[in-house]
Amino acid sequence: MNELVNRYIDVWNEKDPAARRAQVEAIFAADGRYVDPLADVTGHNGIDAVIGAVQEQFPDFVFRLGPSVDAHHDVARFTWELGPKDGEAVVIGFDVAVLAADGRIQNVHGFLDKVPAQ
Q1: Tens digits of per-residue pLDDT, 87-118?
Q2: Where would I find the SnoaL-like domain in this sequence (predicted)?
Q3: Considering the entire predicted model, what is its pTM?
């Protein structure tokens, strides 16, 4: 599960659209769903579009995995940060990922703990 969560964070950092799409298809089920307070999408197209939109909004920022992944059975929870490569996080979140039978991610339920002021 740790490896899959690391790959999940990597896909959020992948700037090359073709490579990002390939990674989305590799780690998410075809009918996988990503939902957080700002997005609710299903399928590779939707997930890839959300990641691309976040990268456009924060072009020079990187995602970093929090201190640990807590997992059991087919569920994992973990924190992440988004901010400048060598700077303080601007966004902090908490995700819960549920796996499909084939070991790819079926659902991600995201929560935002810290967001920039509007």
Answers
A1: 999 999 999 999 999 999 999 999 999 998 76
A2: 5-106
A3: 0.94
